[in-house]
Amino acid sequence: PHDPAAYTRDLMAGDVFELMDHLNIKRANIMGYSMGAYLALAAALAKPERIGDLIVGGVGGAVFGPPRPNAPLVEAMEAESIDAISDPLARSFRQFADDQGEDRLALAACAKARTEPIAGAVSEIKVPTLVVAGVRDELAGDPDELAARIPGARAVDEMAGCTDRRL
């Protein structure tokens, strides 16, 4: 859909469980990357009894910082031409979307969706969790920061064989 109201975190987490129900899956291990990581965290908060192990990638301590403005991403997805995009990060997201044949207007609607910050709730996650982020991923931040706030979680980085940084 191109309506931002269709992309609240609660609705998308509900979609995960509806798919599981449709496939007759009572409980599943779940992995999400980037935006999918936020969705996986929301699913683990909403129905922990349905989640086995949780792996979140491309997220870290940045979830506790101020939210990034969505306007450059929205503008990039809605721009007629990639040549009109001056913001380098937004341009790279647009290029990726184009390369993958994504529905750019749906991505723009998703970026426009108003969702509650998840940072304050992660300490309530009760499923075994692994947090993975690249050591140079400035968008994600330090995976240790996020893992430290999720009871029992572990963090690894995506460099040099995924060394466990908590050992």
Throw out a few tags for this protein.
4 strands; four-stranded parallel sheet; about 170 residues
Structural class label: alpha/beta
Mean pLDDT: 88
- The helix content is 25-40%
Poorly predicted regions are none
Cα Rg: 17 Å
Major sheet characteristics: 4 strands, parallel
List the helices and strands and how they pair.
Elements: H1 9-22, E1 28-33, H2 35-46, E2 51-57, H3 71-78, H4 88-100, H5 104-112, E3 129-133, H6 143-149, E4 154-157
Helix pairs in contact: 1-2, 3-4, 3-5
Give a concise summary.
The protein has 167 residues and is of the alpha/beta class. It has helices spanning 9-22, 35-46, 71-78, 88-100, 104-112, 143-149; strands spanning 28-33, 51-57, 129-133, 154-157.
Q: Would you write up a description of this structure?
A:
With 167 residues, this protein is of the alpha/beta class. The protein contains 6 helices and 4 strands, in the order H-E-H-E-H-H-H-E-H-E. It has a 4-stranded parallel beta sheet with strand order 1-2-3-4, with helices on one face. Strand 3 (129-133), helix 6 and strand 4 (154-157) form a beta-alpha-beta unit. The model has no long low-confidence stretch (mean pLDDT 88).
